Amino acid sequence: VQLQASGGGLAQAGGSLRLSCAASASGGTFSRFSMGWFRQAPGKEREFVAAIGRLSSSVYYADSVKGRFTISRDRAKNTLYLQMNSLSPEDTAVYYCAAKSTIVTYTPRSTNEYDYWGQGTLVTVSS
After folding, report:
1. Which pLDDT does position 28 carry in this prediction?
2. Is 14 helix (H, G, I), strand (E, B) or coil?
3. How much helix, strand and coil, in percent to the nearest 5, is found in the chain?
């Protein structure tokens, strides 16, 4: 599957952005993947942000974004989303979407668990 992330840009502190990740998979195939969002700030390692199970029945968030970010997926559109609210300058990073082929429902949280990656979209939050 190929992943195309979009929606990044410049936001002010306290503002919102919504990221999208379009998957080149049919609706039935898309539901075979657990999906996740990661981010990488300059000079730092890529870190987990959020994940959603293959049937949207389970979600998991990093503590740093819990209560501010919401991950979701639309099977009909083969698209993964990340709604980001109450943004802070610490959220500035390149955001990547990722997919994990699986037959069970779980939310992978480490980079080495994922099989496919999107190209990343830059989010910059100004103070």
Report:
1. 65
2. coil
3. 10, 50, 45
Give dist(CA 74, CA 80) in Å, integer: 6
Task: Evaluate whether 51 touches 38 at the Cβ level (below 8 Å).
Answer: no
Number of C-beta neighbours around residue 105 at 10 A = 13
Which of 120, 127, 126 is CA-nearest to residue 49? 120
CA 66 to chain centre: 13
Is 99 within 8 Å of 107 (Cβ atoms)? no
Report the C-alpha gap between 58 and 18 in whole angstroms: 20
Question: pLDDT tens track of the chain, all 127 residues?
Answer: 899 999 999 999 999 999 999 999 765 688 889 999 999 999 999 999 999 998 877 999 999 999 999 999 998 899 999 999 999 999 999 999 999 999 888 899 999 999 999 999 999 999 9
